Amino acid sequence: MLGRTKKRRTDQTIVLTFRGPESNRQAAVESLSSLGFVDTTDSIPWRQAFPEFEGNESGTVLRGARLKEEMTQKELAEKTGIPQRHISEMENGKRAIGKSRAEKLATALNVPDYRVFL
């Protein structure tokens, strides 16, 4: 049996919920902010904020990673060996990315974890 080869992440986040007097809210937020906590009471889920991306999350991530690296689809195609039309179809949600392509794309786009494309 193979042992663990990767260290566990130590920067995992947690969610805290408090009850107390409203008059002390700002003091509590300021105290927790100094420890690295963030007040998320005004936030909403990203799927609710951007419903136009629902159903094509992996294509949106692919396009975003490509644009972040300032690459055209043609340049990415040359770097990965994946035809440019396939990249276009993946970005538009018309073609599944798949594990082997996700690994190639992650390497070419300097993305540390290929699973973001799946």
Total beta-strand segments: 0
Q: Indicate the mean pLDDT.
A: 88
Q: In CATH's first tier, which class of the domain at 52-117 applies?
A: Mainly Alpha
Strand content: under 5%
Name the CATH superfamily assignment of the domain at 52-117.
lambda repressor-like DNA-binding domains
Q: What shape does the CA trace take? A: elongated
Distance between the termini: 28 Å
Annotation field: number of helices:
6
What is the string of helix and strand elements?
A: HHHHHH
CATH topology of the domain at 52-117: 434 Repressor (Amino-terminal Domain)
**Which oligomeric form is depicted?**
single chain
Structural Rg: 20 Å
**What share of residues is helical?**
40-55%
Low-confidence stretches: none
CATH architecture of the domain at 52-117: Orthogonal Bundle
Strand-pairing-aware structural class: mainly alpha
Domain HTH cro/C1-type: 62-115
Protein name: HTH cro/C1-type domain-containing protein
GO molecular function: DNA binding
